[in-house]
Amino acid sequence: MELVSSHSLGTGKIVHKRTRDTKNFFQYNAPYLSINLNNTSKIHPFISLNKLNFFSIFYRQHGFRDKKKNLYDFAKNIADKHNIIFNNVQFICIPSIIGYSFNPISFYLYLDDQNKVKSIIYEVKNTFGDQVHYLTIDKFKDKEFKKNMYVSPFIEMDCVYKISSKNKSKYHFFCNINQFNLKNKQIFYASIDLNLKEITYLNCILFFILNIFGSIKTITLIHYQAFKLLLKKSKFFKYSNKIKDNLYLD
Predict the structure, then answer these.
(1) Where are the beta strands (DSSP E) in 45-125?
(2) Mean pLDDT of 48-64
(3) What mean pLDDT comes out for the span 19-41?
(4) Do residues 22 and 30 make contact, with C-beta atoms less than 8 angstroms apart?
(5) Measured between alpha carbons, how far apart are the two ends of the chain, in Å?
């Protein structure tokens, strides 16, 4: 799997599908930036790291979640602990647009000198502000992780994720997550299908116009779908365990 290592942007199609008892499906588009963390001194005048701009990525929202600790140092820290050899790190996330964002999932992709993906960190958040990281090394199909963070009030904690990532070209990234209960029955499916392109002034302007309310739309849709499931009397699982940021291996 090879990925472009230059800064780029694109729109990802997000799919959520509930596959048991109260079935539910929705999809939406979300804006994404793909940033080379090895070379962040000059990305684009409209894009900033750790300060307000049209598009921003704030350190307090990712990685160590410390405004004084950058994302490359976070990725390098993980690589050193797990003997990951890499040339650069590509970070894919929904940017803050004029200061606001919500990132259900972001990605740190470790690339070798041929821009082939060697390892991936999946950075997952919920709407309560919790965050966990799942690390997969070398293989990217059906990597299995125990669910370690409360996400939905309508899905229990005792579950297993199987995460796969692939692409059709170096400007494309696809990830899907299948969730299974302890009886190995699939209960939920989610995916992101992202096409990337070069960052230019025109692309940035169009990107801003089309996505100015992108994160607001995302968080609104999530709560709207939860309200629908509540009306359908889906089983409710109460949030009761706030966690610290943790890393889990495949």
Answers:
(1) 47-49, 55-57, 88-93, 96-97, 105-111, 117-125
(2) 93
(3) 88
(4) no
(5) 18
Given the structure tokens 């997000």, which residue do they identify? 14
Answer yes or no: is pLDDT of 250 > 60: no
Rounded CA gap, 182 and 157, in Å?
A: 10
Q: What is the pLDDT of residue 233?
A: 65
Amino acid code (one letter) for 226: A
CA 61, 67, 72, 76 torsion-angle sign: negative
Round to whole Å and give the CA distance between 52 and 192. 26
Q: What is the pLDDT of residue 50?
A: 93
Predicted local distance difference test score (pLDDT) of residue 232: 66
- Rounded CA-CA distance 1/117 in Å is 6
> What is the residue extent of each domain of the chain?
8-249
